[in-house]
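Input (SIMPL domain-containing protein):
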Amino acid sequence: MNQDKLKSWLYLAGIIALLALAYGCWSYTSTYADSMMMRSFSVTGEAKISVVPNVAEFDFSVTTEGGKDLVALQTQNTKKMNEIIAFLKKNKIDDEDVRTTSYNLSPRYQNINCRFDGTGVSICPPAEIIGYSLRQSGVVKVRDFTVLGGLLAGVVESGANGVSQLRFTIDDRDALLGEVKGEAIKRAQVKAKSLADTAGIRLGKLLSIEDAYTPYYGATDTFGMGGDGREMLAIKAAPAPAIEPGSQEVTASVILRYGIK
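Output:
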């Protein structure tokens, strides 16, 4: 009996010892972290570069309205879409740079006026489906700007009745951002050393690196006639427009936290 009590007390003492050890570790870690935060400082580094976009993209669409013969409607619309894609490939646009983005088939209704019966009750028949509208949309990526104007005009000649959202961007933007961030880190390191020398302190280890501000602006133009530029009206063959991509700024900002020795 005494041995059972002894084992119980030893077990309880072991649990208390483990709890005390855990509390001690937590207290030490918390105190150490607080002291490190008190004996540290942060600097910000920024960098930016101006680049000329190397890729252009634009959306195109074919909208066809017809009667209730869905097969005829789809055949007509798909024929135009295939002619556009064939035109793009003929002009050296690779398969991976042409993508279908939407296929929307919707009914067209005709509202029937309400009438009154002999008792003065209004009778409003439901709207009647008189046909359907089919819209197919796609996006094309252009890497050779010398043919961009001809492509914009050519897709319309091939059957597109909607062209919108011409935009310029950088193909490998991640690599570009990495390059800019690297320059921002170098500038932050120089700033940290300068501040430490000015304050008369010894620069400690680098404790953390954080992104502060990394915007990327892709220039967007519109190509079309009428409206707000988002939808191009159906037009006949027109001269190819002159397109200039301009330049874009890519900016990165980082925060470096250093310890103080």
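The helical segments are 2-38, 70-90, 148-157, 173-199.
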